[in-house]
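Exam revision sheet. Question 4 asks you to relate a sequence to its structure. Input first:
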Amino acid sequence: MKRRPALVFLLLWLLASFIGAAGFFGTAAIDSRPAVFVSAGSILYLSVFVLLSFLVYRKNRLLWKLTITAIALLAAALVVLLLPLRDQAPQLSMLQGEKFWHMKDGTAIAYLHAAPPKRPGKYPVLFVHGGPGTPNMKGDASFFGKLARDGYDVYLYDQAGSGLSSRLDNPLQYTTQRAVDELEEIRTKIRAEKLILIGHSNGGKIAAAYMKAYPEHAEKAVLISPGPLSAEDKSGGNLKSRLNRAESLALYQELLHPRVMAAYLLLQVNPAAAKNFAGDHEMDARFINVYEKTEKTLHCNAKTGKKLQGTGFYANQAPQSAAFPAETDIKGEIAPRVPVLIFKGSCDYLSWSSAVQYKKQMPRAELVYFPHAGHNLYEDSPAAALEEIRAFLSGKKLPAAPLQSVSRPKGYEGA
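Answer key, structure tokens:
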């Protein structure tokens, strides 16, 4: 019997906390101002707790002690939830030659142009990074910039919401269609009749969507570990499965902070409320830590801890949230006259069928398989990947013969 008051208090507190949390997220769904939904949740929590406590202990002096305890617990919770994270993102500095395109919608898009030493070819190469929201301008420029030696104007850019580019006010705007519109505006800015597109991961999906919308502006395309064309393909969730127990625990330590969890849950009901609660700078810094904990899964044999910069939390997470409008699958034939080269590594965490879908929908597509290479294939097999790209762009015979069958190769580790 001695423990009964403590048990009753716990039950009352849990019930009040549940109702308070419902008020917090329910209010956030209709009003994105943190002052409003935080106050609503707090008031509802205290009101329910005091009311229930009064009904149970109205003739007991314990009522005041319980109320004070409940208020103290609320204050502690608010400190944890409202105190900004202390993560410090690596200082983003502009690379030599990096500039900005100022877009029609007011955003600034950071880009780098690697010019050829001789007279440029007819069409420029444009690299579309993956994620969304995970650029690596320095690393990608050092690799794809080598194509400038072959006479190509090479352009790399940070998509809106990542790198040095502008973050969008509304996270719901991070759509594939917006990325396609951004790509088309870039084409007009560099005054290119056609583009040679190289897309990695989600950048491959953006390139495919662009070619579907603007086939007349695509000369050739190289798609490296492209993201699924269909929303039914959930293999993107396989990323964490390649981590061991210790690595998974390190990842969850980053994800399970109450403020991070609150921001993520707010993202599911109202992305604008999530961003007002925890802004881009704060969440981008935490996202870098999270991404570093999973970076090894992008390779066949690599350790975690690769230092990154410029990742965009909302650009990456908003499209995956429950509140994000469902995007239409990219269906039907895509750019039937455009030659396409698809790369797939044996350690890619994405499904084999996702690559096959590209080949099926692109009449002139060839699929090349790279053993011992992961999702970031051009980092795992740089020499072979560059040789393959150069041969494809110049119209020469490919060093590694394309697959004659779309059957899943023996030893493929993905879904």
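Marking note for examiners. The mean pLDDT is 92.
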